[in-house]
Design goal:
The structure holds two protein chains of two kinds. Chain A is of the alpha/beta class. Chain A is about 55% helix and about 10% strand. Chain B folds into two domains: about 150 residues, Rossmann fold (3-Layer(aba) Sandwich), CATH 3.40.50; about 220 residues, Rossmann fold (3-Layer(aba) Sandwich). The chains are: A alpha/beta, B alpha/beta.
Chain lengths: ~450, ~375
């Protein structure tokens, strides 16, 4: 059993998000066959256009079958009937009689279930022709499309600086013939913004062609408004709640919540409005717990930024850091500039605003080189006021992982906080080595 | 001429040019860099087309993880260790950071940052749709401005056109050499030298063509004809000898150091048809459908291209072409399609050897065994 489970039970919002993640297959089936919606495969948080077109974006692993704990199923029904407040109270009440400690294993099962499935997809990717030299993310994502790519109507591809990723997109043509491309210029020079706006317009036309729906400015703005609110709540968790001396749960739970947000933010669990309600409730629940003194004093625990994790990481890391007296924080999307809001005020052109958002993320967040990227890591680490950084070097990643030596140099010179790296290839493969390395690292991280 | 001699002569050539006041721009050699623009601005373009070894790869590990493309690692190693035959790299005045692949970006950036070589930028879209072409033009304009700032004057339109003509003729000569019935080893040596020096060795190419006219065919009838695709064979690499010793003869070099470079030729009318010579580069980028940088049709185009060439070769020469797909360890572009390429071609009855390797010495025995086994199968 992992360390976080005992206090998660009252986090109805977290459990619901977990349920929505795991029950994706049934939900998506309904959307596809009953509602006649088109499914669009998305990876990385680029789902806005699909939502605006009335399609259903899906992070492809969610089409898989997961074992879902019956209590999660019941919880989902309960929130629909009783609403959030009553369900939370009810759960607290039931918890008192949970002699079998069934609840304690719920989130643990959820995360294990996701991790096992990720590894299965990794193996499937390799078995189907992707060299084991590629990163965990690409092997896993290819496997996901081998497994369930036939169910989607198109892939949404955003050409970025990572050549392996762009080529991975191309390789998917065999599995999902319909591809929608948005090529993001590397640099904001000349009329690059105008060109990207045109690219997005073309992508919207493709989506309109697939869905048969017209994408009006209003549809885009409506989606951006939802996205902006989600981003605001996400940032509240990253910058405000994570900075508190008192956490609404133990820090390992908190890390799990951040990791669940990181994964689910890519497709908003295929239902943006529902996701917004979940994350809004999450923030509300967190604040209420802090106000009531439910949770844990973490004032003496150093705050460690573990990044990047979106391409895969060893989930045991956060538990080990907790055991070592630290709290683990994840903020990949913020570092890469993808939590910036998209202006929706009157008179703005939503397509151009979306282009500006993407171009800004590409040039200022992810960056066209490692100098910019390492500045992004540094900037956010400083803004979050973390006590240390653990850089997750993904085996086979030639884009982001390559920046570590430069980042280490900058962090040592400018932030004066300890930084180390761990190597990740596959979940469960390198745990002891990671522990040894982090054990040594934690020796030098001073308690706050 | 072996690699050491070639590099030594090249070093002398560069020193001479530097003494004459010429400046040098280095870059990771790929097929979308407008070297004519660099030439028109009065610079000497220096392509990094040098093979690696254990020492060079290891020397890069302070900057990049070992799971980086061996070629990229070796490029860093060359600047880090500066082996004696590569001292001419000290003569480089500027380095062009580009994005053929992400390792190109990272490596070029490291070279500029840690070895203190002033940086120029030139980024290329991955797609080739109309907006990508317009973006390519933006990058060209930006590069032109960067160069003009360095030289303190405008690069004249006529100078660019003249440079395009010069390189065009140069590439045509290389294409003629490619058509000669000589061994793959001899072809590669001249390609490597030519791409390193540029059009300045045009007279030597003409002499070479004269000396190797069809009446002087040297090709052995017993050799296995090879279509060589994937990653280039760079200067100093033993791979070509190993293939030849195993009974193979490379007939097509479908790589940067090869067809991907010299197939980019144009007729005079095409060169002069654009009001702006930069549009010529845009057109060339658009035509480069088989270049491994592009998405999403590279793989499809590549398979079609290989099938056509193999069919044509069989019709003309009456011999089958076998494919060696050269994959430098951790090369994103070539690596990801290796199993798919093999499958597609084998379904058409074309034998394919995926030859994945790094530049370590220990690799040679294994490579030799694999190539020999492939040749024996023929």
């Amino acid at each position: 059993m992992s360390v976080f489970t005992d206090d998660v039970i009252n986090f109805t919002s977290v459990l619901k998000m977990a349920y929505n993640f795991l029950s994706g297959r049934e939900y998506l089936k309904k959307q596809k066959f009953r509602e006649r919606k088109k499914l669009i495969s998305v990876v990385l948080p680029f789902s806005d256009l699909s939502f605006a077109a009335g399609a259903v974006p899906v992070f492809p692993i969610r089409m898989e079958s997961f074992n879902i704990n019956q209590y999660l199923v019941a919880l989902n029904s309960a929130t629909s009937i009783l609403g959030w407040g009553l369900t939370t109270k009810l759960l607290g009440f039931i918890k008192q009689f949970d002699a079998l400690k069934i609840f304690d294993t719920i989130l643990d099962e959820v995360l294990k279930s996701i991790n096992v499935k990720y590894n299965e997809m990794y193996d499937l990717g390799v078995e189907n022709g992707i060299s084991s030299d590629f990163c965990y993310g690409i092997k896993g994502l290819y496997g996901m499309h081998v497994s369930k790519g036939k169910n989607v109507d198109a892939n949404m591809n955003f050409a970025i600086r990572c050549s392996a990723f762009n080529k991975y997109y191309e390789s998917l043509r065999k599995l999902v013939p319909r591809q929608i491309w948005v090529d993001i210029p590397s640099r904001n020079i000349g009329n690059a913004l105008e060109l990207l706006t045109e690219n997005i317009t073309n992508a919207i036309s493709d989506l309109e062609d697939i869905t048969g729906n017209h994408v009006a400015d209003n549809s885009l703005n409506k989606q951006f408004r939802i996205g902006n609110q989600v981003k605001r709540y996400y940032k509240t968790i990253i910058y405000e709640i994570s900075a508190e001396d008192f956490y609404p749960c133990n820090p390992a739970t908190f890390a799990e919540i951040l990791s669940l947000l990181g994964i689910s933010f890519q497709d908003y669990n295929s239902n943006a409005q529902r996701y917004l309600e979940n994350i809004a409730n999450l923030v509300k629940e967190m604040r209420e717990r802090i106000r009531k003194g439910i949770g844990m004093d973490v004032s003496k625990m150093p705050r460690i930024l573990l990044t990047p994790v979106f391409g895969g990481w060893e989930p045991e890391t956060q538990e080990f850091l907790y055991e070592q007296g630290a709290r683990t924080l994840y903020a990949d999307w913020e570092i890469l500039g993808l939590l910036e809001e998209i202006p929706v005020s009157k008179g703005t052109n939503p397509v151009e605003e979306y282009a500006r958002y993407l171009l800004n993320a590409a040039t200022e967040g992810i960056g066209c080189d490692n100098n910019t990227l390492t500045d992004s890591y540094q900037r956010i680490a400083k803004k979050m006021n973390v006590d240390g950084i653990i850089f997750n070097q993904l085996f086979g990643c030639h884009s982001i992982s390559n920046c570590y030596p430069m980042l280490r140099e900058k962090v040592r010179k400018k932030l004066d906080i300890p930084i180390t790296s761990i190597i990740f290839n596959k979940i469960g493969e390198n745990v002891e080595q990671i522990k040894t390395r982090l054990g040594a690292y934690m020796e030098i991280v001073k308690p706050t | 001429m072996d690699a050491i001699e070639l590099l030594s002569d090249y070093a002398d050539y560069l020193r001479e040019k530097k003494d004459q006041g010429k400046k040098i721009i280095g870059f990771m050699g790929h097929d979308n860099i407008p070297e004519e623009l660099l030439d028109a601005a009065g610079f000497i373009p220096l392509r990094m087309i040098f093979a690696g070894n254990d020492d060079l790869m290891h020397a890069s590990n302070d900057y990049l993880p070992p799971s980086t493309c061996s070629f990229a690692q070796s490029c860093i190693g060359l600047f880090s260790l500066k082996p004696s035959q590569y001292h001419f790299l000290n003569l480089i005045d500027h380095f062009l950071v580009s994005n053929h692949c992400v390792s190109d970006i990272c490596t070029s950036e490291i070279i500029t940052k840690y070895f203190k070589i002033p940086r120029l930028n030139f980024y290329i879209s991955y797609t080739q749709d109309p907006e990508a072409l317009k973006y390519f033009k933006l990058e060209l304009l930006d590069l032109k401005q960067q160069l003009e700032k360095l030289i303190g004057r405008e690069i004249k339109k006529q100078d660019i056109i003249e440079s395009i003509r010069k390189y065009n003729l140069f590439k045509k000569k290389l294409s003629d050499i490619n058509d000669l019935d000589i061994s793959g080893v001899d072809k590669l040596k001249i390609f490597q030298k030519a791409i390193l020096y540029g059009p300045v060795i045009l007279p030597e190419l003409e002499d070479f063509i004269q000396a190797n006219n069809p009446n002087h065919a040297q090709n052995s009838k017993d050799s296995v004809d090879i279509f060589f695709t994937g990653c280039s064979i760079f200067i100093g690499d033993y791979l070509i000898n190993l293939i030849e010793e195993s009974g193979g003869d490379i007939k097509y070099f479908d790589t940067w150091v090869g067809d991907a470079y010299f197939s980019q030729v144009f007729e005079e009318e095409e060169i002069t048809s654009n009001d702006d010579p930069l549009d010529f580069f845009v057109q060339r980028f658009e035509n480069n459908k088989n270049g491994d940088h592009t998405v999403p049709y590279y793989f499809e185009n590549k398979v079609t291209q290989i099938k056509e060439i193999i069919k044509e070769h069989q019709e003309k020469k009456g011999k089958k072409l076998r494919v060696i797909n050269h994959i430098i360890k951790f090369c994103d572009h070539i690596n990801i399609f290796q199993s798919f390429l093999k499958k597609e071609l084998q379904e058409e009855g074309i034998q394919v050897l995926n030859l994945e390797r790094d530049y370590s010495r220990a690799n040679r025995g294994q490579l030799s065994t694999r190539v020999e086994a492939f040749m024996e199968m023929m």
